[in-house]
Amino acid sequence: MSDSEGETYEKQVKIVLVGDGSSGKTSISERFSKDAFNRDYNQTLGIDYYLKRINLTKSYNVTLAVNDVGGQTLGGAMLDKYIFGADIVLLVYDITNLQSFENLEDWYHTVIKYCASRKPLFALVGNKSDLEHLRAVKAEKHQRFAKDRDMLSYFASAKTGESVENLFRQVTAHLMHIVLPKNDSEATRIITAPIVRQEPTTPAIPIKSPPTTNTTRTSICNLQ
Ligand SMILES: Nc1nc2c(ncn2[C@@H]2O[C@H](COP(=O)(O)OP(=O)(O)OP(=O)(O)O)[C@@H](O)[C@H]2O)c(=O)[nH]1
């Protein structure tokens, strides 16, 4: 289907953020969905849920269902339900907190166990990159963890916003086998990107209308 025919695809992607409490999962989710940052720590009880629609390319609109899972849910009875059906899992740790990095091994294996029938795409996210001077996890350790498990890898700061939008765009594009241009900006806007492979991984609904311009809808609900 060519762009000249004016066809666009709509796709829904479920992204789940897991990792220790205070690593910054809520902050990353809120930076991405609302472009906001809260200095105060409000522990997530259960799960928070955000929706954001992005124009991934001229032909693809993607609604991202961002599931922010509370750090205390590891070992809890609900975690398997929160993770169920995940397309992408972000393993989030705090680069100033070694324990939060080491505990990702447990998070990883737990998610793998619960997603035995359909392995999601994993990405490692070292958050709080604005606190580089307090770094407790060497970048090489981070890279090795990601490489050994064949996952994507990012450093980000929910506080400054560095790389946050970018990482959501990239993991989504990777899932859909779309190569974004090198200059794909962190802003959500129309991209004149060539689509390398147009078939999505799961069926998408073609819509006969011109692509929308930068339409973003965000909603939040809190389940406990
Ligand atoms: N400096 C800095 N602080 C951050 C960053 N991201 C989050 N924080 C702070 O870290 C604390 C914890 O952030 P949250 O986003 O609530 O962490 P969480 O992983 O959702 O925690 P749980 O709800 O317990 O799972 C808050 O005080 C945030 O303001 C960041 O990128 N840089």
TrEMBL record:
Residues 210-224 have a biased composition (Polar residues). Residues 201-224 are annotated as: Disordered. InterPro entries: P-loop_NTPase, Small_GTP-bd, Small_GTPase. SMART domains: RAB (SM00175), RAN (SM00176), RAS (SM00173), RHO (SM00174). PROSITE patterns: RAB, RAS. SUPFAM superfamilies: P-loop containing nucleoside triphosphate hydrolases (SSF52540). Keywords: Nucleotide-binding. GO terms for molecular function: GTP binding; GTPase activity. It holds the Pfam family Ras. It comes from the Eukaryota. Belongs to the small GTPase superfamily. Rab family. NCBIfam families: small_GTP. This is Uncharacterized protein. It comes from Adineta steineri.
